[in-house]
Design brief:
The protein is of the alpha+beta class. It has 14 helices and 17 strands. The protein folds into 4 domains: about 160 residues, 2-Layer Sandwich (Beta-Lactamase); about 100 residues, PAS domain (Beta-Lactamase); about 70 residues, Helix Hairpins; about 150 residues, Heat Shock Protein 90, CATH 3.30.565.10.
């Protein structure tokens, strides 16, 4: 049975009281009994002295006379008086009749009688077979009339002693009952006081264990319970401080991990994932239940497995690149290193994934750009050098042919100049040096100006161009020079690649806060496979034809960057044999018509070189 604090205190009190009563029974009762016996013994000797004095004048050893004396002295001495001769024969007894003396056994062997006959005084306690009582006997020497030594003995019953012992027992048991009552009351009061404080501490400890570290007991007093309460308060304060610091560090680490663009993966010693940050979940398409599962169970990649195994083998920090498959393949640079062991126990592995797909793409673009520029420059340079070498040998012999080679040199020099100019323009735009000067610009006015510049070429090729942009169309918020460049390149493309009799339409409409401009032609169109790459640098649908027409392959790329610099979008729709439609969007100018000048406005002449 489980006892509470009150029951335990009561049990302890009861045990103490029982031990006290038992101790009293074992030590106090014999002591009291011995004290009473000593007092009775002393009193017996006093009365025996009086008995001896009264028996001193007896003339002879006549039994009748001695028995009568004993009968007279017994009531006076408040006891049983017995006279014994030197042979141990009872010659008088206050409790035995004269006739019965003959039947009384010899008392010489009685301890007290033997001591008295030997000249000493002694007492003893025993049960009397004669009167059937427990008696205390005391005997002293007695000088008989014949000069012999007899003994005078006095015996008193020990009923008083037994009664006193019984009263002592009653007192002890009454004290026990009273002590039990007092113990119940006191233990209940003490247990109530103690258990109340302990209950408060227990409740506070439970709340602390549940995570409420703000609870405080603030006990009063200086006893052990108060000290325990203060110790619990101090422990709660220390735990609260520690947990606050840990939560702050955890939250900071969580924010850092969530904000990182790099993926972070932590494995335990059994290669199970114990931490995956959101960036890595998104990159590798891992579910919310990734923690606790084996890394290679969810990320099936042989290159990654090799990197992790080398890192777990203790080869220090291991790096390598892996390529992921899926809707969007990516190139990831993985840095993996084993975590420091704790208490000689391995702690697992940390791997950081850096997405280098864009870097690798840019490296590829750079290589392609260098290769394309080299290729584009090689052709006119080779043509110029060949023409110069030929001109050097034919200048004196054939002046007429020399004009043709000079024309080749001039044409290729212009092509080189246009190419360099377009490269510089593209470089300024991509390096953010170009800042469009945004201002309200009329699309109708700009398109008319560009068409006026292109009119001689349009008429020469027999192309029909119509400007269908409404005059009341809202103004666009754009850089005027940049917008002229866009119209020039797109219209020049349409004129360049469309044959005689082709129709070109310039249209514009207001759609949901933006202006959509379209330049549609009825030319040969573009195959769908070329459309995604049409705005790349140096990309040509027909390389040979484009070079013959003087294109640099950068016109559409410049147009794309200009439109995007003005916060617009650009695209192309085409069906082979049914023409192509190049379109771009621009934001509508503010109703007030106020311009938004930028701190750095770059202006440059419009390039007429473009490519399709």
């Amino acid at each position: 049975m489980k006892l509470n604090i009150r029951g335990k205190l009561f049990a302890v009190s009861l045990a103490l009281i029982a031990a006290s009563v038992l101790t009293g029974e074992l030590t106090l009762r014999p002591a009291v009994e011995a004290n009473l016996l000593d007092r009775i013994r002393g009193d017996l000797y006093v009365r025996l002295a009086l008995v001896e004095l009264a028996a001193h004048g007896q003339p002879d050893l006549d039994r009748a006379r001695w028995d009568a004396l004993a009968d007279r002295l017994g009531p006076q001495a408040h006891g049983r008086v017995t006279f014994i001769d030197a042979a141990g024969t009872v010659i008088g007894d206050s409790e035995v009749s004269l006739a019965g003396l003959d039947h009384v056994e010899n008392h010489r062997d009685r301890p007290e009688v033997a001591a008295a006959l030997a000249g000493g005084a002694q007492s003893s306690t025993r049960y009397s077979a004669t009167i059937h009582q427990r008696l205390m006997y005391a005997a002293i020497p007695l000088t008989l009339p014949d000069g012999a030594r007899g003994a005078a003995r006095l015996a008193v019953p020990l009923d008083e002693v037994d009664a006193a012992i019984a009263r002592l027992r009653h007192i002890l048991w009454a004290s026990l009952a009273l002590a039990l009552l007092v113990a119940v009351v006191l233990s209940s009061a003490a247990a109530q006081m103690l258990s109340r404080a302990l209950r408060l501490m227990t409740d506070a400890a439970r709340r602390m264990a549940a995570g409420d570290l703000d609870v405080r007991m603030r006990p009063a007093g200086t006893d052990e319970i108060a000290e325990l309460g203060r110790a619990l308060d101090a422990m709660a304060s220390s735990l609260a401080t520690t947990l606050t610091a840990l939560r702050t560090e955890r939250d900071l680490l969580g924010v850092i991990l969530e904000s990182m663009q790099e993926g972070v993966l932590v494995l335990d010693e059994k290669s199970r994932m114990i931490l995956v940050n959101p960036a890595l979940r998104a990159t590798l398409s891992l579910g919310a239940n990734a923690e606790g599962r084996a890394a290679l169970e969810l990320i099936r990649n042989a290159d990654l497995q090799s990197i992790l195994e080398r890192a777990q083998a203790g080869q220090g920090s291991v790096s390598g690149e892996i390529e992921t498959t899926g809707p969007k393949s990516r190139r990831l640079l993985v840095h993996a290193a084993s975590l420091p062991s704790l208490n000689r126990k391995p702690q697992g592995l940390l791997a950081v994934f850096v997405d280098v797909s864009e870097i690798r793409r840019l490296e590829t673009l750079r290589k392609d750009f260098v290769a394309n520029v080299s290729h584009e420059l090689r052709t006119p340079i080779t043509a110029v050098r060949s023409a110069v070498d030929t001109l050097r040998h034919t200048l004196a012999r054939d002046p007429t042919a020399s004009e043709r080679f000079i024309d080749i040199i001039d044409r290729n020099a212009q092509r080189l100049g246009a190419l360099v100019e377009d490269l510089l323009d593209l470089s300024r735009i991509e390096s953010k040096e170009y800042r469009p000067e945004a201002a309200p610009v009329s699309l109708r006015v700009v398109s008319e100006q560009v068409l006026a510049l292109l009119r001689p070429r349009v008429e020469e090729k027999g192309i029909e161009i119509a400007n269908d942009i409404p005059g009341d169309l809202p103004a666009a918020r754009a850089d005027r020079k940049g917008l002229e460049q866009i119209f020039t390149n797109l219209l020049d493309n349409a004129v360049k690649y469309c044959g005689s009799g082709t129709r070109v339409r310039v249209r514009a409409a207001h759609e949901d806060g933006t202006l959509r401009v379209e330049i549609a032609d009825s030319g040969p169109g573009i195959e769908p496979r070329h459309l995604p790459r049409l705005f790349e640098r140096f990309y040509r649908v027909d390389s040979g034809r484009s070079r013959d027409m003087g294109g640099t392959g950068l016109g559409l790329s410049i147009v794309k960057h200009l439109v995007e610099a003005m916060t617009g979008t650009i695209g192309v729709d085409s069906t082979p044999g049914r023409g192509a439609t190049f379109w771009f969007t621009l934001p509508v100018a503010e109703p007030s018509g106020a311009a938004r000048p930028s701190a750095e406005a770059q202006t440059r002449p419009a390039s007429k070189e473009s490519s399709r």
